[in-house]
Amino acid sequence: MLRSLKAALAVVLALGAPALAPTLAVADPAAELAQVRAVLDRYADISVARADGWRPFGGDEPLMGQHWYRDGGPDYAGSDARLDFAQPSNLMYTEIGGRQVLTGAAFVVRLRHGEALPAGFTGGGDRWHVHDFEGAFEAATEDRPFLRGLGNWWLDREYRNAGDDRGRLAMVHAWAGPIPNPDGPFASHNRLLPYLELGLPAEWANGAGMAAARGLVLATPDGCERTLEGPVWIANIPGGQERALLAGCAQAADHVRAALATGDRAAVDAAARGAWQSWEGFLDAQLTPDQKRRIAAMSEHGMDHGAH
To answer: Any signal peptide, and if so, which residues (predicted)?
Structure first.
């Protein structure tokens, strides 16, 4: 998910709503994904999602899409939480060809520090990532006292005062919609998306790595802004530095666009990988140690079942 705290806060706000009644559980990953697919089929048209009360939060995150939530959605909490596969926490949409396209769904489970992952999908093939929400919140509000006070007031009222200290957000994506994921239905990201956003053949993603996909993101409309949104916000990067970062990113994006103009698959792959590598180096050189520390607080941490 945009790994920005603004998005994470919206997730937690959504989780404060009462849970819906669960549907009958099934013990087969194919059947579980079929339940998710049925939900995604219903919401393939974004206007239907809006009519049913789904609302967006955060931006259109690279390799995922914009996350949507619904008031009254399920509050999955604790290692014994059982996912209702017909009740995802989030839907995800991204713009392809001038229209909003459904990319997948996400399930969010609140955990304490040291608490194991829930059972999730049958078979243990699901891939979870975890955000330390409270750690990221503290990092993002170091120099935002009003926001820190407001956030702590809400967290105290809704959770802490009731003895609920589950401040980690464990998430699993389910890519069961119309766009396949070359890395499987539970991958954390979908590297096919930037190929489709740029009008490239879907098969070009086969055999290409994540670095190439991230490099292609830079060349998509607003790709640099989307890539930088989370780090800029959580580290409270000043305007002048943000403009310098965007200029450096634009140079990397132009390198990819030049390769795109050739129509050569190998050239595009090499340019995208090189652009991402050069951009990462540029970003690392421009950020201060303190900014890097704050940005690291929002990083996703991969987890397997049984990990803590």
So the answer is: 1-21
Q: Is 75 helix (H, G, I), strand (E, B) or coil?
A: coil
Beta bridge partners of 106: 90, 173
Q: What is the DSSP letter of 265?
A: H
Structure token pair of residue 241: 């530095």
Beta carbons within 8 Å of 46's beta carbon, 6+ residues apart? 93, 100, 102
Tokens of 172: 């699993």
The C-alpha atoms of residue 182 and residue 184 are separated, in whole angstroms, by 6
Mean pLDDT of the chain: 88
CA dist list (Å): 114 to 130, 138, 153, 304: 12, 19, 25, 13
Q: Is 112 exposed, middle or buried (0-12, 13-18, 19+ CB in 10 A)?
A: middle
At residue 18, the pLDDT reads 33
What pLDDT does residue 43 have?
97
CA distances, 80 to each of 20, 140, 250 (Å)? 17, 30, 46
Q: Is the pLDDT of residue 227 over 70?
A: yes
H or E element in which residue 173 lies: strand 168-174
Measured between alpha carbons, how far is 215 from 242 in angstroms, rounded to an integer?
Answer: 19
- Domain positions in the chain: 5-193, 201-295
